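Late entry, written up from scratch paper. The run itself happened at the end of the previous shift, but nothing got recorded in the book at the time, so transcribing now.
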Amino acid sequence: MLENVGRIGGAAVVALGLMTAVTDSSALPIRYTADLLLTTTVLGMGGVGFNDINTDLIGQVLNHRYATGYNLVPVQWPAQLSPFNGTLTLDQSVKVGVANLDAAIRDPANTGPQIVVTVSGTTLVADEEMQFLAKDPTAPAKDQLSFVLLGDANRGVFKGFQGIKLPTFDVIPVVPVTKYDVTVVAGEYDGIANWPDRWWNLLADANALAGMGLLQQILPQEIVDQFHLNDLGSVHSDSIRYTDLAQVPAKDITTTTNALGGVTTTYLVRTADLPLLRPLKSLGVPQDVINVLEKVVKPIIDSAYVRNDPPCALPQWLRPSAPTTAARSATAARAAGGTPTVPIAALRASLRSMAGPAVRRTSHRRDTSTRPQLAVAQVKSRSAAA
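Output as recorded:
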């Protein structure tokens, strides 16, 4: 119960955060194209509050990565999130977006392989479309379609609510299992795409809110001006607009393959400083003091993310190992469409390897081999004493 309350606290700010990502067109280009060079057509969608995008905005994303050489096609949606923006709920907006996106995917005019690029609120559209296509036998082939998600809430602040209908939003967050390849880009400390795993770390929560670019949107202007909150910037927007994926270190790129063969590649875009501390310089705090403060605060904030946990030292026999002979035989049989058969010797070897090192048992039975001699010695002793 307490855990759900904490998660709801994080999700409650997303409505405004999703709008923050798109309400300032000078700060945030609404579409970014995929890092995957599979497609010639890029289908781009904007975020909440930004329903009308164009090819110029699509071309700005990811450091102008797809500004040239691609057929850029804007896909519109209502972009509303009642009661904060418009009269439609987020779910209603998403459903219209799914219909429009599906039509664009099937439009013969959009020739060649396609890549769907969604930002912030429309990442939910992409996930719903993937669910729909998974049940459609006429869906495009795997090599003809791919998805790119920027500032994604389903894999960020909503990940603790999978399958649960969220009030206000009316959406049910789901990360779909899809045959298509997906690229996910998340800025470090972005409150939408990179919400703290340990939500009870309030300092990390505050830093994530600052990274979302939310505070300067919801607080009175006089407070924003007094405390220089515009200096917070927006990790959410910056990761979408300025990131060059070719410069992301390999250690910040993770790849997973699902049951349908779809590969998800996730880029974590590091943030050089703590968004929470950005206003201090404008408030007159010396840089040396800010540096010392960051050394103290950063480890506390970073401890809220499981990616920063130290690796667990496991005994060798508990560590994952290469597939055994038995496992390889079974896999090969399934791939050939037959029934897996495993040689008895291979099966026994596999079971022994899973059981771990043999433990030598020590017998606890008493040694009775010397009892007769002891008894004779005791009788002689008594006789001599008599």
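The chain has a mean pLDDT of 76.
(Scratch paper discarded after transcription.)
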